[in-house]
Amino acid sequence: MTAKQRIIIVGAGISGLAAAFYIKRHKPNVHVTVLEAADRIGGKIKTIYKDGFTIECGPEGYMARRKGLTDLIKAIGLGDQLVHSKLGGYSIYVNRRLRKMPKGAVMGVPTKLLPMVTTGLVSPWGKLRAAMDLLIPHVYQDRDLSVRTFFERRLGKELVANMIEPLLSGIYNGDLSDMSLEETLPQFVSIEKKHRSLILGMKTLRPPKPKEAITNKTGAFVSLSGGLSTLTEKLADYADEVRRNTTVSQINAGCVTLEDGSVLNADAILLAASPKQFGPLLHFPEAWALSNDKRSSTATVAFAFKKEEVEALGITGYVVSRKEQLHITACSFMDRKWPHLAPDGYAFVRTYVGTPEDQAIVQQSDAAIAQAALADLRMISRIGTPLFSIVTRQIDNMPQYTVNHQQRVHAFENALSKIDGVFACGAMLHGVGLPDCTENARQTAEQVVHYLSILEHTRS
Questions:
Q1: Using H for helix, E for strand and C for coil, what is the string for 300-319?
Q2: Which pTM was predicted?
Q3: Torsion over CA of 170, 171, 173 and 179, rounded to 10 degrees?
Q4: What distance in Å separates the CA atoms of residue 194 and residue 345, rounded to the nearest whole number?
């Protein structure tokens, strides 16, 4: 009788746990062990329940149009918990005022000229410079360049500083001068190649509004009513074994070495840990190149208030221009965006702290971070006294897709393919969002299953 095949997954974040599910779905008879260095699973996903509040300390949801993750959620029996965000606009805090994003702007790039002409976000000269996009020749020349270089050449420095940078920083928490255009915003490469002008071509990035969004007045994001931790907890049930507080020190073909020196054998190994672990665990130059790539540290602060303590601004949040030199980069009024997260009569405000230029704030005490965030919030709108606050940090763990990242990933994957039975997935490789991570996990799981089938055939 052939022994049951064994798979070890290193890392119990969304990537590793989703991979465990997909492997078991395709090959239910294999034994899947997940090893996690921390004392909890979920990675960046962390939900805390306190005094009737459901507090997302990491990601709060994902884009509804990314159907792959929704299909996964339904497949594991959580479809009845899917909830859509509520509609609500976002503003930008710039020049000491909250200003609404011009209608028709997509990720800060104008697609309608009239709203752009009337906005207070950009000076008359800045508007004129942005309009020159209609005349400027191609900037992208089939070689990767930074997001800042691309947009400043097309639309000018002022529009980038006042509109594009605050929005992208809120998503990627990176420095636009380092960020890879090809890897982070490939759609803009395609738009410029096809239309040359972003203003003329950006309308193709605006999909028709779904009928259900019109009927139900729902927003563009989806989450789970019980908190996103219910997703990772449910996925963990599909693994045969999840071992917390278990640190891996080295990965080789056919085995992993633990911190205590013990060795675990496996037919296949899947690395789904933090990007900083790639080099130390795999010990080849291309893995070290990814581990040594730029990462950032961030903190989020969740504040609970009585409803009347928070000014009703008629928006679900705002982002902050870096030239305002505040500690916070964005603020979300979570109870307005996701009403299920707060009890009736209470407000839940979440703010994001730390930029590539201001990493020191993340290292301060919880009290100091919360105090700095609250002071910044009060500069922008009326905010009262919080009932409590919860600070969450991601230290040196947020991947920054710098210029030529795609080439480094390809080099890494080529080198990894030479190690028999070792695979990798995760936010460092093909996208930092939850749908990106789960899709990468699905594809990698299929590679693992294919490898195991070949291995099984050769042994039979």
A1: EEEEEEEHHHECCCCCCEEE
A2: 0.89
A3: -130
A4: 50
pLDDT in tens, 115-169: 777 788 889 999 899 989 999 999 999 999 999 999 999 999 999 998 888 888 7
141: DSSP letter:
-
Structure-token pair, residue 26: 């395709």
- Per-residue pLDDT tens over the stretch 242-281: 999 999 999 999 999 999 999 999 999 999 998 889 999 9
Residue 327 to residue 99: CA distance in whole angstroms: 19
Name all contacts of 188-196 with Cβ < 8 Å and 24+ positions apart: 188/109, 188/150, 189/140, 192/138, 192/139, 192/140, 192/154, 193/138, 193/140, 196/136, 196/137, 196/138
Number of neighbours of residue 374 by Cβ within 10 angstroms = 20
Beta bridge partners of 355: 358
- Give Dmax over CA atoms of the chain in angstroms: 78
Q: How far apart are CA 276 and CA 1, in angstroms?
A: 41
Helix (H, G, I), strand (E, B) or coil at 64: coil
Helices 14-26 and 229-236 cross at an angle (nearest 10°) of: 40
Q: Rounded distance, CA 299 to CA 352, Å?
A: 6
Q: How far apart are CA 167 and CA 169, in angstroms?
A: 5
Give pLDDT, residue 214. Answer: 41
Q: Left (φ > 0), alpha (ψ -120 to 50) or beta: where does 421 sit?
A: left
- The pair of structure tokens assigned to 321 is 């221009």
Strands (E), 314-353: 317-320, 328-333, 346-353
Which residue do the tokens 């205590």 mark? Answer: 260
